[in-house]
Amino acid sequence: MGTKGRAIVNLNVDDLLKELNKALADEWLAYYQYWIGAKVVVGPMKQSAMDELLQHAADELRHAEMISGRIIQLGGTPILSPFDWEKLSGCGYLKPEDPYVRKVIEQGIKGEQCAIDVYSKLLNIVKDKDIVSYNLILTILQDEIEHEEDFQALIEDINQMMEREKK
Ligand code: MG
Ligand code: FE
Ligand code: FE
Questions:
Q1: How would you write the pLDDT of the chain (167 residues) with one tens digit per residue?
Q2: Rounded to an integer, what distance in angstroms lies between the CA atom of residue 1 and that of residue 71?
Q3: Which ligand has the shortest distance to the CA of 62?
Q4: What's the gap in Å between 76 CA and the centre of ligand 2?
Q5: Can you tell me the distance from the alpha carbon of 76 to that of 143, in angstroms, rounded to the nearest whole number?
Q6: Domain architecture of the chain: domains with CATH
Q7: Among all ligands shown, which has an atom nearest to the Cα of 153?
Q8: Ligand nearest to the CA of 136
Q9: How many Å lie between the centroid of ligand 2 and the Cα of residue 27?
């Protein structure tokens, strides 16, 4: 922990650490949901879906690294056991039981929308109070917004393809 680094945070640091650990749980669950989704997905445009899922999985893992690094800087302990992920998570885990591409991607969209909600709320909490966390959360939020758009664009392409097939 950096003592001065923690001292300049104008917030209850323990409360902030709880929020950051919650986000960390979300990131790990999202990582696995997309990683396993890329393995099982079937249906039209499967290759594009796999590519997108794997790219997003890599981003979520990077987010987990960024958040855990900030937790340690602030003197906290990142979640030590995967058994705590689901319990602490705000966005939860959507198991890709139905591997059809549209289902898997729609579950992804729900996850991204939850993440956008979580990070925009968190951004308001740290605004003007913890600029380092603010910068980190803003970067993550930008990625989640891009993720939602990527998944929605993929659904659009699938819809287009299906429409044209009918003609
Ligand atoms: Mg993408
Ligand atoms: Fe993320
Ligand atoms: Fe994401």
A1: 788 988 899 999 999 999 999 999 999 999 999 999 999 999 999 999 999 999 999 999 999 999 999 999 999 999 999 999 999 999 999 999 999 999 999 999 999 999 999 999 999 999 999 999 999 999 999 999 999 999 999 999 999 998 988 87
A2: 9
A3: 2
A4: 20
A5: 25
A6: 10-166 (1.20.1260.10)
A7: 1
A8: 2
A9: 5
